[in-house]
């Protein structure tokens, strides 16, 4: 387990499935993740098992985000598309319950993910993409040191209109200077 100030990142477990399903098919969460088609509980179970396999292969490391004090499941985060030769990866994060957002849990989880990526996986660059309309997430990413490096125009069709995708990244030396 990786501990931060507010959250702990731990292995994703099948026992998390009920908590995941409480929020997974909520249209607000699905819209933010870019895929609005609902998933069944069996599909989510298969996804968890796929996460374990990808971790064994060194491709993706997915973690459950839990509140440090209560142990309450908050969401997931991952280092994915890990490219060991290039020392790069992409990061993703989701706090599932919208009532738990804005409390610093995502910021803390992102700081831990960066530590894992740079201190334990020896990465050089970590990148992400975020909808331009997700201003709160962009603020979090900038707060932990990500920089906007590009814009992919009209990448996703959300609520009847196309939205832009902001490309952001952080380099190892930038992270070390910031921390």
From TrEMBL:
Superkingdom of the source species: Archaea
Domain N-acetyltransferase: 7-169
Stretches that traverse the bilayer: none
InterPro entries (UniProt xref): Acyl_CoA_acyltransferase (IPR016181), GNAT_dom (IPR000182)
Pfam family, one: Acetyltransf_3
Gene Ontology molecular functions: acyltransferase activity, transferring groups other than amino-acyl groups
Protein name: GNAT family N-acetyltransferase
């Amino acid at each position: 387990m990786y501990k931060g100030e507010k959250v702990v990142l731990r292995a994703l477990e099948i026992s998390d499935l009920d908590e995941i399903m409480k929020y997974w098919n909520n249209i607000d969460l699905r819209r933010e993740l870019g895929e609005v088609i609902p998933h069944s509980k069996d599909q989510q179970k298969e996804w968890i098992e796929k996460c374990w396999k990808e971790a064994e292969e060194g491709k993706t490391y997915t973690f459950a985000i839990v509140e440090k004090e209560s142990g309450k499941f908050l969401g997931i985060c991952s280092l994915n598309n890990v490219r060991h030769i290039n020392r790069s990866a992409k990061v993703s994060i989701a706090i599932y319950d919208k009532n738990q957002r804005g409390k610093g849990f995502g910021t803390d989880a992102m700081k831990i993910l960066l530590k894992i990526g740079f201190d334990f996986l020896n990465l050089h660059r970590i990148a992400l993409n975020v909808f331009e309309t997700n201003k709160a997430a962009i603020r979090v990413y900038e707060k932990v040191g990500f920089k906007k490096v590009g814009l992919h125009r009209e990448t996703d069709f959300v609520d009847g209109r196309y939205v832009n995708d902001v490309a952001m990244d952080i380099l190892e030396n930038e992270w070390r200077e910031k921390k």
